[in-house]
């Protein structure tokens, strides 16, 4: 479905249209739906991923955490975020208490009793509200692959972020090696290795993945201002990742050129403004990650 320019102006505060010409500059441009389509449907839910496919994304971006019973669960936080979560008893979760609802300490049977779709999102007013649970990664993959086959659609990629960091090892997630081993079990079992990107801010997971299965594409996430140069950060990773994925505010033509000189794709996040998408495409980025995959309709 195509959306009018009036809709986009109201939704995103921009009057700058994207033309077909800018996409023709890179026919392999990768449109990634952030957490599915967080601006339109509850994040990291099967409904959001299916909607993102309908809107024309080429990659589904998502996050995963690990449960007490070693299931790979699709969730941005390793706990139930107060902005989106409702407890099994129907009560909302207070911000001060959200980390006590620790997914790493729950079985999936306990996790699926929480709702993450009916509470109005304070930052996404246009998000449709539906009953939804945090799904297992294996169920997301099954649902997506079945939907694509049934509707004779083009395959999509999966960009999966490992939600971990050194300070919370053993508290909210397992060690990087166990995290990746559990994630790889799902990816290999579902036969999506060639369609998968594993991304992380935590370079330990990327380094371990590169050692045990270097055939899977990697994306190094980065945000914030740093005195460390781009070149030094890549050296610190210890290998050349497939993709460098900074917050979009950090992207300039010099950084795009540096990435391409090293044979690295650059895909910034999270870009929800038409004018910014146009600016980034013109600089030569290889894709963008957005909460609003409906923006793709303006490129048709």
Overall pLDDT confidence: 92
The structure class reads alpha/beta
- Residue runs with pLDDT of under 50 for 5 or more positions: 1-19
Give the overall silhouette. Answer: globular
Could you characterize the architecture of this molecule?
The structure is a single chain. With 300 residues, the protein is α/β, with parallel strands linked by helices. The protein contains 10 helices and 9 strands. Strands 1, 2, 3, 4, 5, 6, 7, 8 and 9 form a 9-stranded mixed β-sheet that branches. α6 crosses α7. It is globular. The N and C termini lie close together (11 Å). The relative contact order is 0.17.
List keywords for this structure.
9 strands; disordered N terminus; 10 helices; 300 residues; alpha/beta; nine-stranded mixed sheet
What's the layout of helices and strands?
Layout: H1 5-12, H2 20-24, E1 30-33, H3 46-54, E2 59-66, E3 72-74, H4 108-111, H5 137-150, E4 157-162, H6 176-189, E5 196-200, H7 203-212, E6 217-222, H8 230-237, E7 243-246, H9 253-261, E8 265-266, H10 274-283, E9 287-290
Parallel strand pairs: 1-2, 1-9, 2-4, 4-5, 5-6, 6-7, 7-8
Antiparallel strand pairs: 2-3
Helix pairs in contact: 3-5, 6-7
